[in-house]
Write a structure and sequence with these properties.
By secondary structure, the protein is α/β, with parallel strands linked by helices. Among the domains are: 74 residues, Arc Repressor Mutant, subunit A (Orthogonal Bundle), CATH 1.10.10.10; 102 residues, Periplasmic binding protein-like II (D-Maltodextrin-Binding Protein, domain 2). It is 44% helix and 24% strand. The chain has eleven helices and eleven strands. The strands form two sheets. Strands 3, 4, 5, 6, 7, 8, 9, 10 and 11 form a nine-stranded mixed beta sheet that branches. The chain is globular. 37% of the residues are buried.
Amino acid sequence: MELRQLEYFVAVAEERSFTRAAARERVAQPAVSAQIRRLERLVGQPLLTRTSRDVRLTQAGAAMLPHARAALASVRDAQAAVDDVAQLVRGSVAIGTVTLHPVDVAGLMADFHADYPDVEITLGTDNSDVLLAKLADGRLDAAIVSIGVDEHPDGADFVAITDESLEAAVAPNHPLARRRTVSLHVLCEHPLISLPAGTGLRSRLDNACAAEGLRPRIAFEATNPLELADLARHGLGVAILPQSMARSSPDLHALRLAPQLRGKLVWAWRRGDISPAARLLSERARRMIADRSDDPAQGGPAVGPGA
């Protein structure tokens, strides 16, 4: 049984597609299919079923998947142990981020690459729920995500980037524009503009409304808080935004929410079996975040509990 067979098997299982798995592993699709067939012959059971829509695990494949992941994790740990002894930094680091945040990730990657050119860094964007799931199962080493003020990601440590309230924002001619504060009950009587389900901002809103027995009327969704502000500016509803953005957006009137909703934007990294490269990158990110919070020149909208 070869490591690449296990790698391809795990990739297909997670992506539910041979095409996406091949792109993820940076090989041609026939190579993935051939290695999976060899693995199935070796174990004597079909591991995957192909349908017209996707690829799914058989019962044997489901039984094998956690062991394949554990085997690959053990190999990474073994390589990390050797690298620690040899004081080498190489391999790969996978980072994920929400769509809008104040961290200069491109600068972080460029500086790190200059010092450690043998480390391959991958970067992707998604909503917080997806990123946290990938962080938990090892597909990501670190991520910028939104969490509740009392939440702690499973199996991860984190440092706060921003911690701020959510507020409502409306156009000057909106019926709520004469208010300074709005309750959730009144808010839910109006069409709302929000990030999609699965984002940190939306989770804060949905959870607070559910606790009050309310259901928000989501009229429009957008993947970027800047787009939410623009939709509200055109009078299409009440945008739910980080406080810094609600109060700094031109032509919008900000309203405090009652009860108050808060969220954190954090840099989170996997605890435990993390590679030397991932550990060094997260240490550098934490220093960058600390320097940013100490530097008044890097102010402006904090873009807090966003995607």
